[in-house]
User: Fold these one by one.
Assistant:
Number 1:
Amino acid sequence: MESNRKTNNINHSVSVDCVVFGFDGFSLKVLLVQRDLRDNLDNGDDTLVLPGDLIYIDEDLEDAASRVLLDLTGIDNLFLEQIGAFGSLNRLAKDRDKVWLDLVRPIPESRVITIGYFALVNIKNYTIRPAGFAKHVIWEDFNEVGELGFDHNHILRTAIIKLRNKLYHEPVGFKLLPKYFPLNHLYTLYNTILNSKLDRRNFLRRILKTGFLKETDNFQEGVPHKPARLYKFIEKEFENDNNHKFKFY
Amino acid sequence: MESNRKTNNINHSVSVDCVVFGFDGFSLKVLLVQRDLRDNLDNGDDTLVLPGDLIYIDEDLEDAASRVLLDLTGIDNLFLEQIGAFGSLNRLAKDRDKVWLDLVRPIPESRVITIGYFALVNIKNYTIRPAGFAKHVIWEDFNEVGELGFDHNHILRTAIIKLRNKLYHEPVGFKLLPKYFPLNHLYTLYNTILNSKLDRRNFLRRILKTGFLKETDNFQEGVPHKPARLYKFIEKEFENDNNHKFKFY
DNA sequence: CCAAAAGTGTTGATGCTACACCCATGA
DNA sequence: TCATGGGTGTAGCATCAACACTTTTGG
């Protein structure tokens, strides 16, 4: 289905860009691609960008985001959520961006509105595809992301805010961890993403009280200290019970 | 500037749609337009839709939303916030929608992605423009909105969720009220939008504690009971202090 | 035996909920 | 004088924050 797409099947006005977050146990990572190499061009531009693409005219937005990520990770069915639309007139106007657009886009001057998505992945499951496109993909430390192409720093800032809010309000942190994990990984995950220093005992007590965790009989292996018990996430319907009356914060 | 726009200056792939919320003291209202009359056509289709339009190719998204609302209310500079992008392939596919598109759109079959915005207005300030376009605009009770055209029920559902969340977390309720208002209007506003029955005394205590309200020396007039003191909103930087640690809800 | 992280309770303070009566005004 | 909503305080309960030492394992 990808193969029989044609250039004139492309919607030249709308793209998707994906912010893929991962967690390696220590820091938050973001998937970035080197845009020049992406089409095996090389004009010395090593600008990093978020993975993204123009959509096809007969393709749903979220499908387009999935397609981009499938190409990168080889994995379908990622957790995906829309960040929003980014459409300012100058979002593609940097000089280096224009050079790149001229090289690879059929209609380089087209005004493109992009729809941002973010994904949460377990960084170990989805080892980046070794071939082609994916060879030029890197996991960048979130705190070390430099200037990206286009308006991608803006998209990324919006994404991290969404992620933080989600982390406060919904059980999504688990999506960044493997199936079995010690509680302290979850703890450092929260501290890292929220850049806070939560009280460890209070954190553990509360996270257990949510009922989303089940202890297993497995323990860490190969660690140079007392191995921690592994827990797993329990799927259960999360009631976003809006009985938290009003409260500004 | 509107007058020298041309048809070929239109971006036929992207539109904006606006959910305008108002509050009349009793119930939440939404601004809807009768789409057929909108261009002075009349084929018996009285379907209601959210106000919206295709964007111009040289127009920022939010500017497009502002333009649509300016046309309706005559007022510029509304509080506007993006809801998100809506782009499913069948969002314009209902039979009646297609009839309408054939009538008014230069490229009726174009696949259009729309960006939703919502606005909060003081329903009394912005009396709908009496002329032209606006004559066919109505304030519909939120709970009585029927089936709208296109995917506009979907957009509206997304908007109300955003509004509720914002009401919980940020001082935005004031935007729906006039400059001076009695506390009970604010109270019923919260109860109406959150459809809850907050304890009145606890609500008043907490809303005052936020420091966003200042009492004035003015009182209600013309009410058949003890006139309530009027308050006004205090503009001050709202620190979305993320010191509410983690907590699922 | 040493290093490293795991695991584990209590207390005081704060904030939340629940609850009912009198007052001021206009008609 | 009556009807209507305005305005006001407290007490018990639940939740949160702060805080440190012992245990287990691997090396």
Number 2:
Amino acid sequence: MNDGRTILNQWADAGECELPGEGATDQALSSTLMKGLEILALYSDQEDRFANAEIARRLGLNKATVSRLCKTLMHMGYLRRDPKGNFRLAPRILGLSYPVMAATRWRHQLVGPMREIAEMSTGNVTLAVMSGDQFVQVQTVGDPVSFPHIPEAGITGPLHRSASGRALLSLLDGQELYDKLAELRLRFPEEFEAHADLTAASIARCRSEGFCTSYGDWRPNIVALSTPLGETDDGLRVALSCGLPRFRAREDVVENDLGPRLAEAARSFRMMGIFKPPFFA
Amino acid sequence: MNDGRTILNQWADAGECELPGEGATDQALSSTLMKGLEILALYSDQEDRFANAEIARRLGLNKATVSRLCKTLMHMGYLRRDPKGNFRLAPRILGLSYPVMAATRWRHQLVGPMREIAEMSTGNVTLAVMSGDQFVQVQTVGDPVSFPHIPEAGITGPLHRSASGRALLSLLDGQELYDKLAELRLRFPEEFEAHADLTAASIARCRSEGFCTSYGDWRPNIVALSTPLGETDDGLRVALSCGLPRFRAREDVVENDLGPRLAEAARSFRMMGIFKPPFFA
DNA sequence: CCGTCTTGTTTCAAATATCGTAACAAATGT
DNA sequence: ACATTTGTTACGATATTTGAAACAAGACGG
């Protein structure tokens, strides 16, 4: 928009981020472990079972390899076979998450106020934390039925293409932000460009007005608002977000009523002593 | 107790379970993947950070190996470094759990009634599913503060040494039960023996009276009751349990009041059409 | 019912990714 | 500043992983 070079790209330029070593298989990384984890990461709420051949096709692996990896994952208890012979995630996988859930006890204090916001907005209210190049929802409040997806802790999404993600980015200061943006641009070149201006504007707005909005940037049918909360003492950056089905979201209400209310809620959440306040607040 | 051979051992004898191939590294399993997963499994609510050397020590690995594996896990987004250089779980790990959480939507219908039981008993109420040789809690209701541990979805525990586990075992019929017991005896020989009679009695009681109890078998300071609910259509076996701090649990109340009430609750839960009723009900 | 597909597991030798030593780098502590 | 501890990187030896092919087990269709 501004002479062909967005401000976000300028920021990203300022970040350090090595190029991946010529597309070659990074010899410092354990490829077998990666393949195994990629199998687990294949699953979603949409696809809860896979045949051996399907896993092999998606990951570009030999079916014999998949067979052995899945056998290992079953042995470890993270995969199970259903009656039809498909591989499914085993509930045991929740055990890996438990330490993280247990470490975020502070969210229990927030569910009450979150519930009020959910009722007020007739939407979903979530807490999201930054993890690498994604956000991860750690707490969800609201009515599960009226949404196209299933709101639960564990939902992940892109930092640069969602309200939650942008609110989280707004918490990063100076070089940290530049580095993260450089990483994102490296990982998703085309997407990053496509959303660059919106992302830059949202980050700025979070810092000035205390919230940002997104109209289907991430989930096409969801209008979302988000506000940065701050950083916990163990280094987790947290945002508070609200999502509405598009048909139920009137833009003027979102911008002039819900947004300011969410920002106000964030201010009161920050008084609880859980979060180190953001540098701009 | 009965001429030196417990009934549970007789059951376990009837189960098929190969011996592990002479302690040799099972060549059909991917050792690198196992090591990586073992690193992730090291974490708990008690220990949320590890130094490289500590991981190496616990798993008996070379520190160079640990370095490479952790680098890989960080690259995948499941591990992060804290300011002191320790390895911590990254929130991204929750993303692996999400598909399982999303698949157990039925639990939302149960939280209301569960909350009533929690209030009535002044304890914690949980839903647990069987996964391999463990149970996994998928839903928790109650007051987190009065417990020595942090009640959250994802807590795992032993099938043969807990009320929840025994209630789940009671759902297995015939050969399936024998196989599972044989597996458990193979995996935990000494523990299995130590708890064999209690486990057998609890399974029998679940089938006749609809519940079983445990006085510190798993967590020393927790008295627990559990009742089998049944099997969901995607093959998950579910139990409903209630836990109380020991000092607050009067045995006669547990046995004669709470137990029957829990069994009664289970009966009403089974009317909701979520579970295929157990073979003995 | 039998042959024909399809799909998954196992075997085995070849290939290559992993391991451990040792050197290096960094941080910690005295 | 030096000694000590701890984590990462390089590199050759080695053990693990890989993929082809054979095998086993169902599923399908005539």
